[in-house]
Design goal:
mainly beta, 1 helix, 5 strands, 7% helix, elongated
């Protein structure tokens, strides 16, 4: 399941501001009916939560040129903390500067 909300605002013609939040809840498992494969199920159970916050802005110059700046912060959480999988908690922050030209 993913829930998200975004907002965009343009205070003046060449400026656009954006912001948003997204939250994802995922879970899954693999179960077998064969007794010899039961140990596989302990590696397969998964429950994660991920939240991402974004903020960005862009400015439209003349002659098709534009510049933008985006900040993104994501948090990843392993809700089960299963010792048999390689899923770890984490956090990342990203800043992206873009310059573009439209012909």
């Amino acid at each position: 399941r993913t829930y998200s909300a975004d907002v965009a605002y343009s205070p003046k013609k060449p400026v656009t501001l954006n912001g948003g939040i997204s939250h994802t809840i995922s879970k899954g498992a693999f179960y077998t009916a064969a007794p010899a494969l039961d140990h596989v199920a302990s590696y397969s159970e998964l429950k994660i939560r991920e939240t991402t916050y974004t903020a960005s802005g862009s400015y439209q110059f003349g002659h098709g040129f534009s510049a933008g700046l985006e900040y993104r912060n994501s948090t990843f959480k392993d809700a089960l903390n299963n010792p048999y999988d390689d899923v770890n908690n984490g956090r990342v922050s990203i800043v992206l500067l873009s310059i573009s030209k439209k012909w």
